[in-house]
Amino acid sequence: MTRTIALKALRPGLPKVAAAVAENFDRYIVTKRGNPVMVLMSPEDYEGLIETIEILSDRSALKRIRQARKEAKAGKTVSLEALRRRLERV
Asked: 29 phi and psi, to 5 degrees?
């Protein structure tokens, strides 16, 4: 969940905000005089966001994702057991 908090309110509430970010993956947009100045999020959330951006900027990765979606829609899937058998042969 993304919440907005004023910088003035953040100072005394920082321990609670930090706990919400760490435990619930909440995000906070911090404002100063009504204008956004920063975003608070967990390191895991941040890393996931960066990884998503990197994948979406890789044309070959996007092409493979689109192809995989088409194959899945067409029913060209492999069961978990079949995948395990294939991996055991490797």
From this structure: -95, 120
CA angle 36, 25, 64 (to 5 degrees): 95
Q: How far apart are CA 23 and CA 1, in angstroms?
A: 12
Mean pLDDT, rounded, for 80-86: 93
* pLDDT tens digits along 34-78: 999 999 999 999 999 999 999 989 999 999 999 999 999 999 999
How far apart, in whole angstroms, are the C-alpha atoms of residue 8 and residue 24? 23
Burial of 13 (0-12, 13-18, 19+ CB in 10 A): middle
